[in-house]
Amino acid sequence: MGEKKGTVIGEALTLAALVSYQDGTVASRTLIDKQVGTVTVFAFDEGQGLSEHTVPYDAFVQILDGEAEITIAGEPHHLSAGQMIIMPANKPHLLRAVKQFKMLLVMIRS
């Protein structure tokens, strides 16, 4: 896998296969972590989520598997595999697994 052990650089991979569901929790795997941004894959068990928070930059989310409810500034959005949404900077948002779901999160900090 990749140039360094455990990396994904230079490999053709299936995003949803990079992180596994774990009972009663949220699992994640960071693929890129740079000063300018991050790329992370998450797996949420049913009923799990992230509490309401804000970040100072836009965040791109693509649902890879399952179903999620993403609430932005009080407005809920129901997303399923293949759909995406951009959570705008400085707007409160939260995520909840309607069913188990996996997502790709891309945050660009500049």
Describe the fold and architecture.
Residues 42-107 form the Cupin type-2 domain. It holds the Pfam family Cupin_2. The chain is mainly β and 110 residues long. It has a domain at 36-108: Jelly Rolls. The protein contains no helices and 7 strands. The chain has strands at 26-34, 37-44, 49-53, 59-72, 75-80, 84-87, 93-108. Strands 1, 2, 3, 4, 5, 6 and 7 form a 7-stranded antiparallel β-sheet that branches. A hairpin with a 2-residue loop joins strand 1 (26-34) and strand 2 (37-44). The radius of gyration is 14 Å and the shape is globular. The chain starts with 25 loop residues before the first strand and ends with a strand. The mean pLDDT is 93.
User: In the CATH hierarchy, what is the architecture of the domain at 36-108 at level 2?
Assistant: Sandwich
CATH class of the domain at 36-108: Mainly Beta
Overall pLDDT score: 93
CATH superfamily of the domain at 36-108: Jelly Rolls
Helix and strand sequence: EEEEEEE
- Residue share in β-strands: over 45%
> Quick one: how many beta strands?
7
For the biggest sheet, the summary is: 7 strands, antiparallel
Helices, by number, come to 0
Furnish the topology, listing elements before pairings.
Elements: E1 26-34, E2 37-44, E3 49-53, E4 59-72, E5 75-80, E6 84-87, E7 93-108
Antiparallel strand pairs: 1-2, 2-7, 3-7, 4-5, 4-6, 4-7
Summarize the structure.
With 110 residues, the chain is mainly β. The protein has no helices and seven strands.
